[in-house]
User: Fold these one by one.
Assistant:
Number 1:
Amino acid sequence: MIFTTSWDDGHPCDERLAAMLDHYGLAGTFYIPIKNQEGRQVMDALAMRELDRRFEIGSHTLDHAYLTKLTAEQCDFQILAGKHQLEDILGHNVGGFCYPGGKFNADVRESVINAQFVYARGISNFWLNSGIDSFNIPTTIQFYPHSRQVLWRNFIKHGHYSERFPAFKSVAVGMNWLSAMKNLVEAQSETERVIHIWGHSWEIEDNNLWSQLDDFLNFVSELNPVTCRLDELRSHNKWSNEK
């Protein structure tokens, strides 16, 4: 099993989350906007640089803008300004991008490519691989206690049912959401498939899920997975770069 995690929005609680990943020897990628127009805090530059020493940091636009709602000029500005300001803070190129809210279309995708990103992550779930499009990297499941009804809706929404059903089935048989997450991981522990967990540290804080996250990460670490960041996943799974 290849295990990776990614975390959106750059909230200061990312520092606590990163420490937990470090403790269990697990990798992660953090997508950070420079500010958040929704009013949530974003970690300061010093914290970003400290996080960058241990994990991958990707861009999440300038101020967490939903790109499909913008004009072409506004979209380009959000993508480029977010990338360049983050690179100025970190002192190196940033190759990864995440679409805020998972919202994008063909024009947004083209803008991300033109901004010289290497890949972009979406939110399509129940995948057990890294996908076939490096500008729409899918996920396996969000670390959040969604109801079964929500999981069903998400499964129906994104199609590719035969490919996504094995992961969905593992989650659906769990007695509760945390046992479902463990079922999902354990079912793939002896395979070469990808488990990609994503989420928001501010949601974990708001819903008091830290003990559940610690339990889950401990469970995963005891399975001894291959663990890597999103920018390293290409060396384990081939991505196509169809533009």
Note: The beta strands are 2-8, 29-32, 56-59, 96-98, 119-121, 141-142, 194-199, 226-227.
Number 2:
Amino acid sequence: MSDPTEANTTAGAEAAGPEAAAGGADGRHVRVVLVDDHRMFRTGVQAEIGQTAQTGVEVVGEAADVDQAVTVITATRPEVVLLDVHLPGGGGVEVLRRCAALMADAEQPVRFLALSVSDAAEDVIGVIRGGARGYVTKTITGADLVDSIFRVQEGDAVFSPRLAGFVLDAFASTDAPPVDEDLDRLTQREREVLRLIARGYAYKEIAKQLFISVKTVESHVSAVLRKLQLSNRHELTRWATARRLV
């Protein structure tokens, strides 16, 4: 059963009162929805950036999966959505696709800023092609995140420094990248586990980084090996290295 607090839309905004509506110290104001499947992370982001009187950021809703995200975004129509790449129900790309279809005629654009633990090129390129205006990793500071949110609101493209190169390389070529049918068989979460395994992480380290259990990591690795018809993590590492996924 979904936690009734996961798809929170307007309670926080109503409680903030007229002071929140007035914006931050410099008069700027932006309405934001947080989309991430880890409630503790959303709580941390809310505590870091959601002091509207100081930052100008008003968090008007939260969601933990694709369906909740689409519901909250279409109900609140924020200026900016902070969007995790890996979500139950299809991932951030699916949120982008469904929101684009539902809000094609909206007068006020809703802009998306990906905020993810992943720094993989295919994740970055995937959400940018899906319509996101930027991509930053979860190592970003609160002050830099607030700045990135306002820049995206204003129509700028925002990237963590290392990630900008992925986008430039991808869009500099007029040829579309070749389709990798083997890689396409994997879910977003399986790709993330694959990449960490290939980088030499132990199962416990992967579980800690992705906020999942060791048993779940083992299940993902078994699924990856089966789908790719590989026998062990050494073959998996060679496979990932050959495709520059590490």
Note: Residues 181-242 form a domain with the Arc Repressor Mutant, subunit A fold (CATH 1.10.10.10).
Number 3:
Amino acid sequence: MNRPAIFSRSSLSRRHLLAGTAFGAAALAAPAILRAQPAPVKIGLLHPVTGFLAFSGQQCREGALLAIEAINAAGGIKSLGGAKLEPVLGDAQSKPEVGAAEVEKMNEAGVAAIVGAYASAISLATTQSAARYGIPHIVDVGVSDQIVQRGLTNTFRFCPGYGVIAKIAIDNLVALNDAAGKPARTVAIVHEESLFGTGTAQLLQKELPARGFEVVEVAKHANPTRDFTNVVLKLKALAPDIVIPANYYNEYVLLARTMRQQGVRPKAIYSVLGGAASSFKFVKEFPDDAAYIMDCNHWYDPRKAEALELRRKAEAKGLYYTYEVFLAHEAVRLLADALERAGSASRERIVEALATSSWDGHFMPYGPTRFVNGQNEGARPVNTQVLNGTIEVIFPAEFASARPVFPMPRA
């Protein structure tokens, strides 16, 4: 019968002692190793990646993920011991109510903050839902000024709103028209039906007459719209000098193509937040329809190496370098700066850090971030024009890469 081995204290060999010591040291070291790996910081990325806004929503998501990838590769959040950012993905399905429901899920998942949600109507719903839980919410693209006019202390919009954009757009249009001898007097506005398009159109309709332009038509269309024939036939009959579209990508492309097919060639197609006018996708796929179109919109600083490097990375992934990509990317970097300064993943501390932000590490044509009632006062749009098969900056002068062509050629 086998008996268990019995060891006396004197029978322990040096080898047994050393082995035991090594095992004990490893056991004691294990918690230290675990402590050296800080918990990741969960970040909600909430965009409409399905539905009629899917292209733009997917572009936003990819831009945000590229930022998270770069931040993590550079060592994570240093003030949190190198904590990595962990994306929690949400799909608003192009519907405000779904976006709000996604916030509920993100709160249960324990996100420290949310970046999103592209469209104004969706952002209005998601910021309100996030406010119930004190979740800091950085709006990357949504331009309706209602988003930052409700006193929500959790809401911070990185980009300019349509109030600022419309004013700068009109100032630049007047400058263009004056420099050319004032050939344009009449304007038609074509806008999508949601908060973004309607709000932009109302501002333009109010301000343009005071600057010497007659608004001869304001045409609203549904999302989605599959046929612009009736709208364009009316434009053809009215023959406005300038057509101002304010709509999302698919409808913008269809409107521009229908105008060209019907021979509607105003002195300028001058977009304000045109969904396709400042898009390399539109320029590549429909170069003749895009030619000479102007836009007042979000854009990067073409002098910044970081902006050009992100374009290289985005295009290497098969993406078009649209404003959705770089605005969502920079919104995540803004959040990372707030986390560094907060030294905490606490929602309250992040809100405080964002509210006192003076971040100037971005590659936008902005000044340092300075939030007043949630709006980044340093944010500004630029004017672009499609010239020679690419997109050039024409205003402001310090960022300009080309001179504007106005009026545009008839041919």
Note: Residues 41-159+303-379 form a domain with the Rossmann fold fold (CATH 3.40.50.2300).
